[in-house]
Design brief:
Two copies of one chain form a homodimer. By secondary structure, chain A is α+β, with helices and mostly antiparallel strands. Chain A folds into two domains: 97 residues, OB fold (Dihydrolipoamide Acetyltransferase, E2P), CATH 2.40.50.140; 279 residues, BirA Bifunctional Protein, domain 2 (2-Layer Sandwich). An eight-stranded mixed β-sheet of chain A has the order 6-10-11-16-15-14-13-12, with helices on both faces. A five-stranded mixed beta barrel of chain A has the order 1-2-3-5-4. A three-stranded antiparallel β-sheet of chain A has the order 7-9-8, with no helix packed on it. In chain A, a hairpin with a 7-residue loop joins strand 2 and strand 3. Chains A and B meet through strand 1, helix 4, strand 6, strand 7 and strand 8 of A and strand 1, helix 4, strand 6, strand 7 and strand 8 of B. Chains A, B: Belongs to the class-II aminoacyl-tRNA synthetase family. Chains A, B: This is Asparagine--tRNA ligase. Chains A, B: GO terms for molecular function: asparagine-tRNA ligase activity; ATP binding; nucleic acid binding. Chains A, B: Keywords: Aminoacyl-tRNA synthetase, ATP-binding, Cytoplasm, Ligase, Nucleotide-binding, Protein biosynthesis.
């Protein structure tokens, strides 16, 4: 008989006879009460086993982690905490789980231990919730852009180009590296490699995205990007998913409007659809913070924090204004910042971004019009000749969640900037073509998807919001 | 003033004054009529320039490919072929396009030429249409699975595992390959590499997807996968996007039902939303086939073919039945097949698949229960001991579009198969864990997204349905 999902059983409005449920045992109490979960919801359904008429041998196999199939009647529950339960008529053990060996015991495990068991951690309440929320957030991304008429573009993963003009990249090759073909000077002869030249994993789809925006008007990417930076932090992954919209005819302020509207939409969509999971994660966060001193705890609970973002505009402040605020701030005057802000032109460090967001504005902040020399070559030079039309969105607890800009659409200005920093025009001939033929004002941004998932789930380590994290020394699974 | 998209202007129900449109000039006729496109639709809007009051200098700059902004009144058109046009009041050239240098001339270009200009080909009608259709198909994929309660899972791109137990893979490394650290025996010391061991680009997210299905119940992936096979064909890419759903408690027949329902849903969704683009592509195909002999032309027009798939069940036939049909077929008896089918156990070649689909059944076909020794280790051994619960979906003109199976959920059977073909159990310890703890019947499949786009757009070369194709010798852009 077809199984009914636990989510649908729990949402039933009336009792039903002879339902089939299949899932995994979370707990088994009093030789009678199975808490059964099938991943469709964070909630378990209670299955009441007729233990007097069930062989002892079977009862022993109802252990945490075991897969079981039950057939029975869905009846109103006498117990607290659930409306319905299943009075089990027949029970079948589909797959055993040796209680002594199963790593996911019904107790609290450390996040580190769970990371080492990324294939099983998703069977816990917290990681089931995180992965469902992540999935709904991803759906919201597509929904938003599709509704607005954006075209989803899969920019290449293997590439010869390097959008940032720098950045440590992973190399991709099909050569036998222990015995590669060589040039006369002893270097590897990449002409013999699969693509006929050296290739890397993409760090951004922006440049290709720009080319497509210059034809389709509004596009977005949503795919994996890579950084071979040896950053062993709670905010960095070597492989992460990035969303990069690009819009023809949008200037920097249109770009900020789009980013803000987009973030608000996807959070609202997810809050609406994931109430149960988010409530669970909110409770988890409260528990976790109990061990922290009062002043290090979050000022708002998770759902309040998300609603705050929905209801309040992000503060917009130019880099120049931000520098003034920081220079006059108490931690700057008292030299509490590791990097004291003395003058215009300084790069903003994480401590400064946090001060602006968490102490000064107490709100997400958009900083725009940065000094040209601390930003990328493709950003549009402003009329002042010293700033570019860049914007970063900073979030509490997360830091930079969006980096975007109006792009330099003027061929001559772009070429001059490329020459200055030594980017070969021949390498980017096709990118320059977009400025040679029908160039126009355009803007876009990149949003690190995992940082958004961090914010929405209230988790604090980026390794806990992606199924199988890739970090220095770790590509298991 | 905010621009209005061409799509919205053309969909207007009434005249409007002072609208702004921005886009690229497709053609400029009689010094008066601009066909303007902004990528929002395949249709251009006609902008009528008041050439008597426009400087000659400006008129000269209205060339194919130039970006322009026009302000004017949207009025009913006197000309044929459009309901509305813009009577231009002011026109601004945003970006010039030197008519002699712009590669996308208003004429027919070869597909080969366009591939070499993948950054600009999207400015043609055909590639604009293909990319919009591709985007809507991708949206349909997410919509289908999300509606059904599947969880979207981003399985890792960089991996140590190899789902196929074979397959040529791209290697990923952050080492300086011209001067790598070496072991005493002279081989490269990958312990010094970024991840501490050798890594590759994934060929499939299936194994990780299975682990997640064993917790979340129903999952799907949709991400890039890679093959370093030197296949210079119209059906293969080195980098392509794959969709891989995996469902706990589904057997092989549930799996076929899911695949068929899914394919039909996404095609219907796209046919409904992309009428204009598909009609254009249908016309393109008819034009293209005019140069072919009658018997090589498609039997059905594009939209008829898509509707046929929507209205007819896929034929399901066991491998054993398929072999009987092929053995008794005229091309087999007359030895017209390159590989004559003599006995049960033969692998089906493309010519056999095409015969079944295009000649015998004249319908999409699902072949299931293949001989175990021509299929992968993870497929479930049937009771007969010689076939596995595999299924391939074959499409006219495309060949295999889906490959799936019920997975071997029995620990002992799986381990024995792995040993037989020499897969290290230690490598896949985590995969085996899914069979050690709460194993259950489960099934899934992989669908090559570009093959689906090929089918829906009527294109014949897979390089023409992905933005920037990666093939042997080609990773430009």
């Amino acid at each position: 008989m077809k199984r009914t999902k636990v989510k649908d059983l729990l949402a039933s409005t009336q009792p039903m006879s002879d339902v089939t449920a299949k899932g995994w045992v979370r707990t088994f109490r009093n030789n009678q009460f199975i808490a059964l979960n099938d991943g469709s919801t964070i909630h378990n359904i209670q299955c009441v086993v007729d233990f007097e008429n069930t062989p002892e041998e079977t009862l022993k196999r109802i252990t945490t982690g075991a897969a079981v199939s039950v057939v029975g009647d869905l009846v109103e529950s006498q117990g607290a905490g659930q409306k319905f339960e299943i009075q089990v008529k027949t029970l079948e053990i589909l797959g055993d789980s040796d209680a002594e060996k199963f790593p996911m015991q019904p107790k609290k495990h450390s996040l580190e231990f769970l990371r080492d068991n990324a294939h099983l951690r998703v069977r816990t309440n917290a990681f089931g919730a995180i992965m469902r929320v992540r999935s709904v957030l991803a759906a919201a991304v597509h929904q938003y852009f599709q509704e607005q008429g954006f075209v989803y573009v899969n920019t290449p993963i293997i590439t010869g180009a390097d959008a940032e003009g720098a950045g440590e990249m992973f190399q991709v090759s099909a050569l036998d590296m222990n015995n590669p073909p060589r040039n006369e000077d002893g270097t590897i002869n990449y002409k013999e490699d699969f693509f006929g030249h050296q290739t890397n994993l993409t760090v951004s789809g922006q440049l290709e995205g720009e080319a497509f925006a210059m034809a389709l008007g509004q596009i977005y990417t949503f795919g994996p990007t890579f950084r071979a930076e040896n950053s062993n932090t709670s905010r960095h992954l070597a492989e992460f998913w990035m969303i990069e919209p690009e819009v023809a005819f949008n200037d920097l302020h249109d770009n900020m409007d789009l980013a803000e509207d987009f973030i608000r939409y996807v959070i609202k969509y997810t809050v609406d659809k994931c109430q149960d999971d988010l409530k669970f994660l909110e409770g988890r966060l409260i528990d976790e913070e109990k061990s922290k001193p009062q002043d290090q705890r979050s000022e708002m609970n998770l759902l309040d924090k998300l609603n705050f973002v929905l209801e309040n505009n992000f503060k917009r402040v130019s880099y120049t204004e931000a520098i003034d605020i920081l220079r006059d701030s108490t931690p700057n005057k008292k030299k509490k910042f590791q990097y004291v802000i003395n003058e215009w032109g300084a790069d903003l460090q994480s401590e400064h971004e946090r001060f602006l967001v968490e102490k000064h504005f107490k709100s997400p902040v958009i900083v725009y019009d940065y000094p040209a020399n601390i930003k990328s070559f493709y950003m549009r030079l402003n009329e002042d000749g010293k700033t570019v039309g860049a914007m970063d969105i900073l979030f509490p607890g997360i830091g930079e969640i969006v980096g975007g800009s109006q792009r330099e659409e003027r061929y001559d200005v772009l070429v001059e900037k490329m020459r200055k920093i030594g980017i070969d025009e021949k390498e980017l001939w096709w990118y320059l073509d977009t400025r040679r033929f029908g160039t126009a004002v355009h803007s876009g941004f990149g949003l690190g998807f995992e940082r958004l998932v961090l914010f929405v789930t209230g988790m604090t380590n980026i390794r806990d919001v992606i199924p199988f994290p890739r970090t220095p020394g770790n590509a298991e699974f």
